[in-house]
Amino acid sequence: MSERTDDGQKDGETVLEVHDLTKVFGSGETAVRAVDGVGLSVKRGEIVLVMGPSGSGKTTLLTMIGSLLKPTTGTIRINGLDITSLHESELTKVRRHYVGFVFQSFNLLESLNAQENVEVALNLAGNAGKGARNKARQALVDLGMKPRLKFKPKALSGGEKQRVSIARAVVNDPQLILADEPTANLDSKQGHDVVVLLRDIAKKEGRTVVIVSHDHRIREVADRVLWLEDGRFKDIGRLERDPVCGMAIEAEGAPTLQYEGRTYYFCSVGCRGEFEEQPAKFVAVGTPSAAQSPISGD
Ligand SMILES: Nc1ncnc2c1ncn2[C@@H]1O[C@H](COP(=O)(O)OP(=O)(O)O)[C@@H](O)[C@H]1O
Ligand SMILES: [Mg+2]
Q1: 239-292 has which CATH code?
Q2: Ligand with smallest separation from the Cα of 104
Q3: Which of 38, 49, 236, 254 lies at 20 to 30 Å from 211 by C-alpha?
Q4: What is the pLDDT of residues 32-46, one digit of tens each?
């Protein structure tokens, strides 16, 4: 019923191949195996969502795939190129041309406007002048940002900032887009818009998209969902939605509470405490509440 492994279908063009990847932080008694023997294969145009509790190694995995962090052992191939064997100067090229990153906190340069933020990515990749300016502009216009081209980040909403960062991620035309909790700082409407944009990037533009997130809405567009726990992929059990924070969580082992004949599941005792204080706030009467629609494991 669930995807234990991470092998995509065997046909089609494989864009990302990760083999036996490990990252150990520190050494001796205090060593942390943040990623512990992970394998993954993702095709062109495919959207893979990696879920898992906080601290399970999601960011570590994604930053290694994006060549921002060196693995302890294992290999990562992007378009057949083994990036784990490359020198730093070559890795810079990989980051600029092969991969686009979308971060939870947007990581925009505050002193530059939206268009300039996108233009910088082009400049770093060796594309300058009027051509770069026009390309940056078009990337933003394509994402509905025409009225905001000259706005600095502080004048943009969270959703608009994330559009700028998506434009920046795709502008050099990389095959692989990596997104770390891309909707975590957005309200529900803006989060939904970002999910739709990521879907279009994969399905209309044929890019490969790997997203790590707790956000259950991303399940709706993902071709595959993988569950990372203690640095390893494991079977997805039954997933439930925390009615307080909306996070997708594995039912097994989660803190629970009975309320009006139902069992509710929580990501933490903190969320359970909040629910306990004012359950009515989280259980909407007459409308299907988050908790009433468990997310089925597949
Ligand atoms: N730079 C680092 N140095 C030491 N430990 C780290 C570092 N980055 C992450 N870790 C540890 O690795 C584990 C996985 O972290 P992370 O990948 O950030 O998880 P997630 O993104 O799933 O919340 C955690 O135990 C975290 O404390
Ligand atoms: Mg993280």
Answers
A1: 2.30.170
A2: 2
A3: 254
A4: 999 999 999 999 999
